[in-house]
Design brief:
Elements: E1 6-12, E2 15-20, E3 26-28, H1 32-38, E4 44-48, E5 51-54, E6 58-64, E7 67-72, E8 77-80, H2 85-99, E9 103-107, E10 110-114
Length: 126
């Protein structure tokens, strides 16, 4: 299986479930840390103690006060921990800068990918 086929990974106790794009989920007995290390070269970020997301599959980030949720392209909303939010925000910004196609805009407390606006410049705040 290719890393690009993974939308997100959720861990429940000692089992991890790999949620795949257009396929059924796969459950295995590997740790989330194992996947975090194995997927380090790819655009994956840990957003919670029990979740890793593929940045290519994050459709938007909903922000309400200190509560943040990553909404995946399949509609799944995953909570983002307060401690992981700065790393995710930075990773999304860097990932978008390298794509030159998608940009991030803050509209009504929702961070959304748009393809019809110019790219975010380095140092620009979200």
């Amino acid at each position: 299986m290719e890393a690009a086929q993974i939308s997100h990974i959720l861990c429940d106790d000692y089992l991890c479930t790999l949620h795949l794009i257009n396929r059924s989920p796969i459950t295995c007995a590997l740790s989330l840390r194992h996947f975090e290390q194995a997927l380090a070269p790819y655009p994956f970020v840990r957003i919670h103690h029990n979740a890793i997301v593929n940045l290519d599959c994050v459709a938007e980030v909903q922000c309400k006060g200190r509560q943040h949720h990553a909404v995946m392209t399949d509609g799944t909303a995953l909570p983002i921990s307060v401690r992981k939010w700065p790393a995710l925000r930075e990773a999304l910004s860097a990932h978008t800068l390298t794509d030159h196609i998608d940009t991030l805009t803050m509209e009504s407390d929702t961070l959304t990918k748009n393809t019809d606006t110019p790219a975010i410049h380095k140092g620009q705040r979200l």
